[in-house]
């Protein structure tokens, strides 16, 4: 039996709440709307003036915590047991959807459903003893019917190279190209949330100064595995929670939108209209087709609305009489949502690797049990492992004896021996069929029958003709080995190609050695700190009055402090160039081989045409024979094909090596540049009075303090956060992750703003 979608209404607090228009039921599960009749329309006026809506709850003057307890807590708990969940906020613009879903980041108590759901998930992980839970995060935006990844790390130019698309699969709907990030704690998840919020599209109009101009879907993926591995427990429970903040519907007469905001409003209203059509279609049991593909929003929500998922709707409304029409529209939508029935199920998958391991353990236990049983009945010779070479040879010997009639039956110790015997019988039958087919087409000569070989060579010398099959079947049988050996002497083998190329034994220097070198350099720094230092005045006097250009300083850095990093960078780059040169050589050789193969095929075709015009030679048994020239062409074509396959495989390996070497070179280059920036800042940009604090005998080593901290000694974000911690932690110890994530996001925004100046 299905589960009905749960629908709640949350009323935005306002000083002008229309108490005579909006009234709540005594159980807080119904809401009534009353409108006075318009006297201008006369006495006869049949227009409806009152409506009543029954929902799962009415949230009026409720806190964020109470809202979460009522709407989301149960759904998140069920998601941890394997049920998919969806929470969706719907309503007019400025009704408080984003506040309900995300909340206000200024204060911890005002956080919304998403931060609280993240906290609940990681609290459950902390309390879980017998389960291993993995959490991943994605953040999708649908802006003007375009899919955008709010957590994408690519640039705007790179994002256009890989367009995202909605894909239907047996497991459900997913967005191809959407990045999914693994998170280890609450702070990491909130970092992604706040980072995505900074990338959202917002605009201002008369009803809302920060109006969301897109639909956003924040998804939490949960994977639960049991820590206790038993033979029957190889399950993996997967679930996801979709937290959806829909853009608000707008009446253009009230918002006064124009230009870009007007275009955005048109897309928003159109997608919400399609969403309402889907709701009406799902509520109709007679409808066979549901048009989910009408818009990107409805397509993404296919599993949430019509699938196996727990779904909750929060309809946000304004309590002012001015917006009563929008309030009625939102309440109608919420009522229609309650008509939809979903069928939530636990999403269980089975790990194939664990299944194999479990079956192997089970086989081992069964073998032990069989061995114990055999020992009890004195059957000690029976083995249940793989057959040894001695046992296989014994089976073959018995089969030959049986076929000769020397023995009447074959002894089987177990079913494995019986299966092996059947296999050999089948193999022998196939060999006989192949031999019969070959003898019907070709002349087979035993290599040890020297008299027959000599006679065949005399026949060949007298007629200059060799009976062979067509060139397509030449690999089935070797005719006249001496002729083939002699004919292949002039063929180009291509195996000496590797002698002209750089050896694969060259060692690529991985960039992890950079960390080892850096560690050794740090140890040297500590040793130097222990030695007596030069007077500070002498060091300062050696410092130039004005910093040199970065180009000149970079050359100096490569010769001195960065010599080791520069050496590794050059070595990796030289190896990369060698691999590229080798790849180019192999590619040219492949093209040459292809051309040679084409020429040989043309020559073979010409030989066949000439033979058909002059008449074909056949022996006394009617079998076709060809001359030596055509035979050599066939053999050469075969060798070229083999060489082409080897060269192509080598080219693929070289491409993989080039990609890896390029990765190492890029890492070396970035490491060299970052080390130079630190060295340049510490050597030329730090003021003189700060140099006194960085002397070798002090506690501060160069590189520990970023240059922006050295140049600006005012209170920074970290200090403000620490001061705030002292004030806030005693009353809210769970707020550490929230405020840390907020601080990191603010720092990213500030640094991005400074870099754009």
TrEMBL record:
Coiled-coil regions listed: 587-657
| Biological processes annotated in GO | microtubule-based movement
Q: Where in the cell is it found?
A: Cytoplasm, Cytoskeleton, Flagellum axoneme
The UniProt annotation puts the region (Disordered) at 520-549
Q: Which residues form the Kinesin motor domain?
A: 4-340
Q: Which PROSITE patterns match?
A: KINESIN_MOTOR_1 (PS00411), KINESIN_MOTOR_2 (PS50067)
Gene3D superfamilies per record: Kinesin motor domain
For this protein, what is any one GO molecular function term?
microtubule binding
- GO CC, alphabetical: microtubule
InterPro entries to which the protein is assigned, alphabetical: KIF6/9_C (IPR056524), Kinesin-like_fam (IPR027640), Kinesin_motor_CS (IPR019821), Kinesin_motor_dom (IPR001752), Kinesin_motor_dom_sf (IPR036961), P-loop_NTPase (IPR027417)
Question: Where, by residue number, does ATP bind?
Answer: 91-98
- Function according to Swiss-Prot or TrEMBL: Essential for normal male fertility and for progressive motility of spermatozoa.
Listed under subunit, the entry gives:
Interacts with HYDIN.
Alphabetical list of PANTHER family matching this protein? CENTROMERE PROTEIN E, KINESIN FAMILY MEMBER 5A
What's this protein's family per the entry? Belongs to the TRAFAC class myosin-kinesin ATPase superfamily. Kinesin family.
Q: What is this protein called?
A: Kinesin-like protein
Species of provenance: Phasianus colchicus
């Amino acid at each position: 039996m299905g589960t009905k979608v749960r629908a709640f209404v949350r009323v935005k607090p306002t000083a002008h709440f229309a108490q005579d228009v909006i009234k709540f039921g005594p159980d807080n599960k119904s809401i009534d709307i009353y409108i006075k009749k318009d006297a201008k329309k006369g006495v006869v006026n049949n227009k409806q003036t009152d409506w009543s809506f029954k929902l799962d709850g009415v949230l009026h003057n409720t806190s964020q915590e109470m809202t979460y307890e009522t709407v989301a807590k149960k759904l998140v708990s069920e998601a941890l047991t394997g049920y998919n969940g969806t929470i969706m906020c719907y309503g007019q613009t400025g009704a408080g959807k984003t506040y309900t879903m995300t909340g206000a980041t200024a204060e911890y108590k005002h956080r919304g459903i998403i931060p609280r759901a993240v906290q609940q998930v990681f609290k459950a992980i902390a309390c879980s003893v017998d389960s291993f839970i993995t959490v991943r995060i994605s953040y999708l935006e649908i802006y003007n019917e375009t899919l955008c990844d709010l957590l994408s790390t690519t640039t705007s130019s790179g994002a256009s190279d890989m367009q995202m698309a909605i894909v239907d699969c047996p497991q459900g709907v997913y967005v191809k190209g959407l990045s999914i990030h693994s998170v280890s704690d609450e702070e990491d998840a909130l970092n992604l949330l706040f980072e995505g919020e900074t990338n959202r599209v917002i605009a201002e109009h008369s009803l809302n100064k920060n109006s969301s101009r897109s639909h956003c879907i924040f998804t939490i993926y949960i994977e639960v595995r049991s820590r206790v591995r038993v033979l029957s427990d190889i399950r993996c429970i997967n679930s996801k929670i979709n937290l959806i903040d829909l853009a608000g519907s707008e009446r253009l007469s009230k918002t006064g939108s124009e230009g870009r905001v007007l275009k955005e409003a048109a897309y928003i209203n159109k997608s919400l209209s399609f969403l309402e059509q889907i709701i009406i279609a799902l509520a109709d049991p007679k409808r066979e087709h549901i048009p989910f593909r009408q818009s990107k929003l409805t397509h993404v929500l296919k599993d949430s609305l019509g699938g196996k998922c727990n779904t909750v709707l929060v309809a946000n409304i304004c309590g002012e009489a001015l917006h009563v029409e929008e309030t009625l529209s939102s309440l109608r939508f919420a009522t229609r949502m309650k008509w939809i029935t979903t069928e939530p199920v636990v999403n269980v998958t089975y790990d194939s690797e664990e299944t194999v391991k479990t079956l192997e353990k089970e086989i081992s236990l069964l073998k032990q049990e069989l061995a114990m049983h055999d020992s009890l009945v004195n059957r000690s010779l029976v083995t249940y492992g793989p057959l040894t070479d001695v046992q296989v040879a014994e089976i073959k010997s018995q089969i030959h004896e049986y076929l000769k009639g020397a023995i009447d039956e074959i002894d089987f110790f177990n079913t494995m021996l019986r299966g092996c015997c059947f296999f050999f019988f089948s193999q022998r039958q196939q060999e006989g069929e192949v031999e019969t087919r070959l003898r019907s087409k070709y002349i087979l000569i035993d290599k040890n029958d020297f008299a027959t070989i000599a006679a065949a060579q005399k026949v060949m010398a007298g007629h200059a003709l060799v009976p062979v099959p067509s060139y397509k079947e030449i690999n089935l049988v070797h005719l006249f080995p001496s002729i083939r050996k002699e004919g292949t002497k002039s063929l180009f083998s291509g195996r000496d190609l590797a002698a002209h190329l750089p050896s694969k034994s060259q060692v690529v220097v991985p960039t992890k050695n950079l960390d080892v070198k850096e560690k050794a350099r740090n140890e040297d720094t500590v040793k130097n700190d222990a030695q007596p230092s030069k007077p500070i005045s002498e060091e300062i006097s050696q410092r130039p009055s004005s910093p040199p250009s970065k180009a000149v300083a970079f050359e100096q850095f490569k010769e001195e402090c960065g010599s080791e990093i520069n050496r590794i960078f050059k070595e990796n780059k030289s190896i990369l160039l060698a691999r590229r040169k080798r790849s180019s050589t192999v590619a040219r050789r492949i093209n040459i081989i292809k051309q040679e193969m084409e020429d040989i095929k043309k020559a073979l075709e010409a030989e066949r045409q000439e033979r058909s015009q002059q008449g074909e030679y056949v022996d006394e048994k009617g079998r076709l024979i060809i001359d030596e020239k055509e035979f050599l062409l066939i053999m050469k074509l075969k060798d070229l094909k083999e060489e082409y396959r080897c060269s192509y495989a080598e080219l693929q390996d070289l491409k993989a090596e080039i990609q890896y070497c390029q990765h190492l070179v890029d890492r070396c280059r970035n490491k060299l540049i970052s080390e130079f920036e630190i060295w340049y800042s510490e050597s030329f940009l730090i003021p003189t009075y700060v140099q006194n604090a960085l002397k070798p005998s002090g506690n501060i080593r160069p590189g520990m303090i970023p240059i922006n901290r050295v140049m600006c000694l005012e209170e920074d974000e970290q200090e403000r956060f620490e001061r705030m911690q002292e004030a806030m932690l005693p009353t809210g110890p769970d707020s550490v992750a929230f405020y840390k994530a907020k601080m990191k996001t603010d720092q990213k925004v500030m640094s991005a703003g400074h870099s754009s100046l």
